[in-house]
Amino acid sequence: MSQDRIDILERALKREKKARKAAEKILEQKSTELYYSKKKIEELYKEVESELTKTDSQLQGVFENIVDAYVIIDIAGNILKMNATAAHLFDFESDKSDGNLMNMVLPEDIDYVSQSFKSLQKEGSIKDFKINIKTNKNDIKLVHVNASIIYDKGIAVAAQGILRDITQDNKYQKSLEAEREKYRAITANMNLGLLEVNNDDEILLCNSSFCEMSGYAQDELLGKVASDLFLDSEVAEIIKNENLKRQKGDSNSYELKIKNKLGEIRYWLVSGAPNYNLEGKVIGSIGIHLDITAFKKLQEQKEKLLIDLEKSNNELHEYAHVVSHDLKSPLRSINALVSWLKEDNFGKLDEISLKNFGLIESTLEKMEQLISNILSYSSLGEETQSNQPVNLNDVLLEIKETIYLPEHISLKANTELPIINGDKTKLEQLFQNLIGNAIKYCDKAEGFIEVNCRELDQHYEFSVKDNGIGIEEKHHEKIFKIFNYLNKSKDSSGIGLSIVKKIVDLHEGDLWLESSLGTGSTFFFTLKK
Amino acid sequence: MKGIVFTEFLDLVEDKFGIEMVDRIIEQSELQSGGAYTSVGTYDFSEMLKLLKNLSSNTGIAIDDLLLVYAEHFFSVLEKSYPLFFEMYSDPIEMLASIENHIHVEVIKIYPDAELPTFELVEKTDDSLIMIYKSSRAMHHFGLGLMNKTFQHFNTTASIVLEKIKNDGTEVKFIINKN
């Protein structure tokens, strides 16, 4: 081999070696790069993997914990996966049960459902879809559905949905509507005027009765300020205060003087209550209005009558005083004159004249007593020392001591008598009159008078029983009327029982009697505790 | 420029003209790399120009003709190394039309520091293609050789006319008509 060729080959070899080394260096560098790249990729993979696990467990948590039913179905409706709530909703044994949602659709809904399913596939999702389903246990439930399609590489492979049982909601809603309708019917038809205003007193609602009361049509009222329509400025101030109270949450009732559409003054009784919104904030008030104008007029008349009555009563009272006083003095004069006549003609008068003088005297005495009784009757209405505790045992004792009780008549109380609130003098008069009558009209050899008492709810019931002459039933009514007396006797003025009746009335009690002619009488009366 | 272009070139020179010619042009070119090329390395393009120039002066063959022959040789290297590219196409026009948007994109992925020419697509029909080659290397005949071989690969031929837009050959219009 020539030297030239050897040289050429040597150079070529040298180049090859150099090229190989360069290549090796490059390769080493590349493999180092590759190693680091691989490591980096591994790290990234781990990161991605842990992120994926995290997301997956988050999703699983959502799936398990979601309050609503969650279900995944394939395109044919077969259940692929569901949570426990869904299993419960569909009445399945467990969330692992097999089922097909299409089998739960009611026959009448099939068209509706297949249409909705098509739109779900087309749009990718569907919201607020409501449908009745027949569950595994043949219960009908109304469910609310939000669903979306699951795609795999752009192809719809399944659908996932969140379902909510709104059967109860629906029932509740319906009953709420029925309630509302009932309420509406009540407010529309009730005889009371109903008015709802907001916090600015603008009318939001009124029923037909209110329109009738006010004289306005509904559209003349809505949106108007109620106080501007009906009230004078001073009355408006009152209602403003009442409205303020209501805004604080108080209910209240008050009377209003208003002007209706025709300008007539009417009186309304208003019961108002604050109206709250769902957050519990006062948003206005609702008032019930009753027209009390007629009642109010009657009341005014009554008040006037009372005043008149009081006036004439006073006049009468005064008159009775004056009359009895004025009548008594000529009586005394006549009495004096008669006794002078008797004295002056002592021994000159015959027996008949003397008897007539005696009759004049006893008549005068009776007249005097009559006038005294009228005076005492007319002063009964006066409020003296009323409402003090009075021990009726003491009262009876005092009467026993002061009254003339013949030997053949006994008087006793069979029971302990109570202490009641009242006017002592009047209560004395009451017992005295009844006992006095019993004594007066005793015709038996052995007379008795018994006082009894028993306690009732609000009253005490007393009775005064005797075995005297008794009273025929036909007279029972009239004996309590003034100037009625059945037996003409010199001490009977015909006023006693009227006084009794009046005193019982003053003590808010009743008075009646049981009696039969010849066997005796029992007078009953009640006195308020 | 990728080392494989150099190694394949020198292999071809050795094959056609003998190891002496390889030695001679390397010696004459006074290369920075010393002519020690590895296909995985990257080398300055001026070395290729020097090698081509010296080969041309030693053999009396024009540089463009040398590039043409070299390209035809290089095509077979591509066929062997990257059969996937060829399987993706069934038509040479389609393949050539996608040099810029597909093939070169993939090349950059494999060789991030490759410096590639651009082939701007001007007109395309089923049977014809007009493209504008742009490269500071002015290796349009290398392209021409690859194109000829592409048609051959799909068992067809084409007439390809080159019109220089710039005299130095850095911008050339390729008018390709399938036969």
Care to give the gist of this entry?
The complex is a heterodimer of chains A (529) and B (179). Chain A has 529 residues and is an alpha+beta fold. Chain A has helices at residues 3-65, 84-89, 110-123, 167-189, 208-214, 218-221, 226-230, 233-247, 293-344, 351-378, 392-402, 424-440, 496-506, and strands at 69-74, 79-82, 125-134, 140-152, 155-165, 193-198, 203-206, 252-259, 265-276, 282-291, 388-391, 409-413, 419-422, 447-455, 459-466, 511-516, 520-528.
What does this 3D model show about the protein?
- The complex is a heterodimer of chains A (529) and B (179).
- Chain A has 529 residues and is of the alpha+beta class.
- Chain A has five domains: 1-65; 69-171, PAS domain (Beta-Lactamase, 2-Layer Sandwich), CATH 3.30.450; 190-291, Beta-Lactamase (2-Layer Sandwich), CATH 3.30.450; 297-378, Helix Hairpins, CATH 1.10.287; 388-528, Heat Shock Protein 90 (2-Layer Sandwich).
- Chain A contains 13 helices and 17 strands.
- Chain A has helices at residues 3-65, 84-89, 110-123, 167-189, 208-214, 218-221, 226-230, 233-247, 293-344, 351-378, 392-402, 424-440, 496-506, and strands at residues 69-74, 79-82, 125-134, 140-152, 155-165, 193-198, 203-206, 252-259, 265-276, 282-291, 388-391, 409-413, 419-422, 447-455, 459-466, 511-516, 520-528.
- In chain A, the strands form four sheets. Chain A has a five-stranded antiparallel beta sheet with strand order 2-1-5-4-3, sandwiched between helices. In chain A, strands 7-6-10-9-8 form a five-stranded antiparallel beta sheet, with helices on both faces. In chain A, strands 12-14-15-17-16 form a five-stranded mixed beta sheet, with helices on one face.
- In chain A, a hairpin with a 5-residue loop joins β8 (252-259) and β9 (265-276).
- In chain A, α9 packs antiparallel against α10 (351-378), α11 (392-402) packs across α12 (424-440) and α12 runs antiparallel to α13 (496-506).
- The longest helix of chain A has 63 residues, at 3-65.
- The N and C termini of chain A lie far apart (160 Å).
- The mean pLDDT of chain A is 85.
- Chain B is α+β, with helices and mostly antiparallel strands.
- Chain B folds into two domains: 3-61; 67-178, H-NOX domain.
- Chain B is built from eight helices and four strands, in the order αααααααββαββ.
- Chain B has helices spanning 3-17, 19-29, 45-59, 63-81, 83-87, 92-97, 99-110, 140-153; strands at residues 118-124, 128-134, 158-164, 171-178.
- Chain B has a four-stranded antiparallel beta sheet with strand order 1-2-4-3.
- In chain B, a hairpin with a 3-residue loop joins β1 and β2 (128-134).
- The longest helix of chain B has 19 residues, at 63-81.
- Chain B is globular.
- Chain B starts with a helix and ends with a strand.
- The mean pLDDT of chain B is 89.
- Chain A binds chain B through residues 5, 8-9, 11-12, 14-20, 22-23, 26-27, 30, and chain B through 7, 19-20, 22-23, 26-27, 34-41.
